[in-house]
Specification:
The protein is α+β, with helices and mostly antiparallel strands and 257 residues long. Helices cover 30% and strands 32% of the residues. It contains 7 helices and 17 strands. The two termini are 34 Å apart.
Length: 257
């Protein structure tokens, strides 16, 4: 199966390519296109792929504009940091709509949907699109993310609202840091499990050890090798969180909303 990625951030595109190769190694990424202009030119000269991964907001416009210039029948998996374009995505060959940062589990599910459509030789039949859109709308009407965590301190259970959490940190155990500086033990085996419960617009997986709340960030400093150092607001200011060079562009885009 051949696929094309349309993404204006080179590092984000490469990270997405790596994730695709990890969850679906049979997919061959034949091209990464950085803009609407290059996309129009490429599709004018090449046959459409079996599958298209498309960021919504590009440096020279919104990717939906491509459908005004190029007739495409292949299924599209839209990737974006924003959810306000979901309905329009489903009107433009959209089979799934993934919010950044993209989780491999959700990516794998989206690819499986596309494979099923391709095998049936029906790219987004109207009834299937309507079902997907209806499911999305219902999802938006209910809270899909966790509102509170129950933490432990001095043999007591303490309910803590997600909005009051500065970060989650994996040390000897998994800890929750409150905005007031308190630290609580969480009864979760892995940060991956916690990450799946959080709104990706509010929380970002900085590295293997930490998930941070955007409201808790005091500032971000560039350090050697294009890495980033994230500092949190007081009283959690002593916590310094590294973000790798590969994730720096994605992180900046997540913050710049």
């Amino acid at each position: 199966m051949k696929a094309v990625i349309i993404e204006d951030e080179e590092i984000i595109a490469r990270v997405l390519q790596q994730k695709i190769q990890h969850v679906a190694p049979e997919i061959d990424i034949v091209q990464i296109l950085p803009s609407l202009k290059t996309s129009r030119r490429w599709f004018a000269e090449h046959a459409e792929p079996d599958l298209l991964f498309m960021d919504v907001q590009l440096s020279d416009g919104v990717s939906f504009e491509l459908f005004q210039h190029v007739q495409l029948s292949c299924p599209v998996i839209f990737t974006t940091a924003y959810d306000e374009y979901a309905i329009q995505a489903f009107k433009n060959n959209g089979v799934d709509y993934l919010l950044k940062p993209i989780h491999e589990g959700e990516l794998q599910q989206a690819i499986q949907k596309c494979k099923a459509l391709i095998q049936k030789q029906a790219h987004a039949a109207p009834q299937e699109l309507n079902a997907l859109l209806q499911a999305y709308m219902q999802q938006g009407q209910t809270n899909r993310y966790k509102e509170k965590f129950v933490a432990s301190i001095r043999n007591q259970w303490v309910p803590i609202s997600v909005s009051e959490i500065a970060c989650f940190m994996k040390e000897s155990l998994n800890y929750l840091y409150h905005l007031n500086g308190d630290r609580y033990i969480l009864d979760y085996n892995a940060l991956d499990e916690i990450e799946e419960l959080l709104d990706p617009r509010q929380f970002y997986r900085a590295n293997r050890q930490c998930i941070i709340n955007i409201e808790a960030i005091s500032g971000v400093k560039s350090i050697e090798g294009s890495k980033l150092l994230v500092r949190l607001k007081e009283p959690n200011h002593k916590l310094e969180i590294d973000i790798s060079r590969l994730k720096s562009a994605e992180f900046r885009k997540w913050m710049d909303r």
